[in-house]
Specification:
Layout (H helix, E strand, L loop, with lengths): L4 E9 L8 H14 L3 E2 L3 E7 L10 E11 L3 H9 L5 E8 L2
Antiparallel strand pairs: 1-4, 1-5, 2-4, 3-4
Length: 98
């Protein structure tokens, strides 16, 4: 039996063409973590930030949302695969906390 680990995920969102705001996206990201087999904590919204390196000329600022979650070792990969085709999720950074 594998132990659950604690992870911290930071999502860079591109909300330019989206009807949902960052609060609604935080809820959707928590649902995606649950679907991937994780147990999400409360989201922390870091707001809009200027990007140091812009992936596109018209994408100068992104919205950052941080969510800590517990899960099996396969959970981060499953989460990234679930969100891979989601246009609003520009980047996902996941690190193991413990």
């Amino acid at each position: 039996m594998t132990k659950t680990k604690t992870y911290k995920a930071i999502f860079l969102l591109d909300l330019r063409d989206q009807e949902k705001n960052s609060v609604e996206w935080a809820s959707l990201l928590q649902d995606a973590i649950k679907k991937s087999g994780g147990l999400p904590g409360n989201p922390i919204e870091h707001g809009h930030r200027q990007l140091a390196r812009t992936p596109k000329k018209d994408f100068q600022m992104g919205t950052y949302v941080e969510i800590s979650f517990d899960g099996q070792p396969h959970t981060p990969n499953a989460l990234q695969e679930d969100l891979r085709l989601e246009k609003a999720v520009n980047r996902i950074f996941i690190e193991r906390v413990s």
